[in-house]
Amino acid sequence: MRSTRRQFIKGMALGAATLALPASGGAWAAGMQAVRYGGSAWLGHYPAWLAIKTGYFKEQNLDVGWDSFGTTSARVSALLSGNIDMAVTAAPAALAVMSRGSRHFAIIGVPENFGRVEGLIVRDGVQKLQDLKGKKIGVTFASSAHLLVLNLLDQAGMKVDKDITVLNVPAPEMPAAFQSGQIDAAAAWTPQFNAIQAMPGVKVLADDTQFSLYRDYGVTPGPDLLVARRAFLEKHPEAVKRFLKAYFRANEQLKSQPDSAVAPLIELTKLSPSEQLEMIKGADWYGSAEQQGLLAPGSKFIDGLQKLAEMMVRYGQIDKAPPVRDWVDPSSL
């Protein structure tokens, strides 16, 4: 099982390093700096989408195009191949590519903390993790939820295959697998997390706040990172600064005026207004004032990312831990 997980995440990293995806195309507005952003309906991309729809980017003389990707690996590969300039990516995917020595991108911001909308869901009879001994946990391999499960088992003194079976279940299939009894517990993130939690006779046994690095560093199993292609960053430093100004303005709106962000976002997510509002409120949104504290030398957050990389090595997810600080560039903040 361990070698399978390593091969899985290695394959994701290799794909990210070699696959080139086409840009969205279209004519950019005359006189404005073009920026290509890679996103999806995941909440980590809300700030960029909101800044596009509200005109915050245009106010900064930026024409930001949106390229949608179904997987994190496809998004990272597009960034590395130069088809997009900016993106938000989960830290495990970035660390997997970093561990292979790629220097094509830099971490320039942290959008949010989504620790309350990801976790391990069990049936009501389960009181503690040990009650799952001999049973099956469904999780999407090479994901933040996967790291959460491995860490929870580690904390409980339990081992994969010996004490419990961990099955690779694609995120969209998780609710059906749990409901049908194919798995005894499900580790998922929103919206599957919300869908399973809404089923009768279930409860959340643990969420990301029980992750060991969260307690010490405020780092979840898969924190979202705002990254920029280094070539773009070096060629257009002022454009990146303007991008961040508009981006974190949208973050402040999500944080202080969540109701006002619902209408623009449902165009992206196709959620109902009530579901969308719940999603926005389920995350802690970081503003521009908090970025220096998150990314500065000696910050607890970056130390936590380094510990996360080391944990991924220990759990067989990557072969070596990259020096994370070499990829951090707070100069545009």
Automatic annotation (TrEMBL):
Cellular component GO terms, alphabetical: periplasmic space
Superkingdom of origin: Bacteria
GO biological process, any: alkanesulfonate transmembrane transport
GTP-binding is among the record's keywords: no
Chief location bin: periplasm
SUPFAM superfamilies listed in its UniProt record: Periplasmic binding protein-like II (SSF53850)
Location relative to the cell: Periplasm
Domain called SsuA/THI5-like: residue spans: 45-261
InterPro entries, alphabetized: SsuA/THI5, TAT_signal, TAT_signal_bac_arc
Pfam families recorded: NMT1
Keywords: Signal
Region forming the signal peptide: 1-29
Protein family (similarity comment): Belongs to the bacterial solute-binding protein SsuA/TauA family.
NCBIfam families assigned: TAT_signal_seq
Protein name stated in the entry: Taurine ABC transporter substrate-binding protein
Organism: Bordetella flabilis
Native organism taxonomy: Bacteria, Pseudomonadati, Pseudomonadota, Betaproteobacteria, Burkholderiales
